[in-house]
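User: Run a structure prediction on this.
Assistant: Running it now.
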Amino acid sequence: MRLAILSLLCLLTACFTEPPADRVWRCSVEQPLCPEGQTCVNDWCAKDGIATPDLASSSDGMQDMSMVKPCTDGFPLGTQGVWACRGKFSPTTTVATALCQNGYKLCADGFKVTDAECSNTSIKGFFFADVPAQGSTGSGAKCAQGGFANMWFGCGWYQGTRSPSERTPFPCKNLPLITYCDTLNNFTCILTDLRLDAQKMDDARNGVLCCPP
């Protein structure tokens, strides 16, 4: 009896040990970490390629879109279908758009995520939206106008050796964070081309925001 009570308390307090491959554990945007070989999907750690209880097929036999992942290296951001997908991008190899798969598209705004979800400090990596910015400092960054962009909006915290993400008091399309174009930080921009597909980001710890179809 005592053992049963202790086991129940462990489950209720989210005790975490390395589970067998067929087990499912709770996770969240704030704590998206899962055991190796599992991904946080809709607040559950699921073995890669295995649907969780929240990802069942619909009653009419059609596949639920929540079963479809836009990338193999990423995690859900928020509750409205946005994913943060890691990967390098470049106009001469894999463009930013190509990191979003299975019908997902590069996010053109941040209206499907909240400020708290977008700027959570536990997000290790900056995930670019197709939203250019301009300004002399992060505190003055705004939506790019006049055909010039030296920054880009997105979510998370840029992983690099030089320039991290910064918060701007002038969010663009509901996105509060920017990162700088900086060759020393592995983010090289064509400043007069306002497409993310024209830019080069050479640090796989970062990536893009992918929005559902």
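Residues 1-23, 50-63 have pLDDT under 50 and may be disordered.
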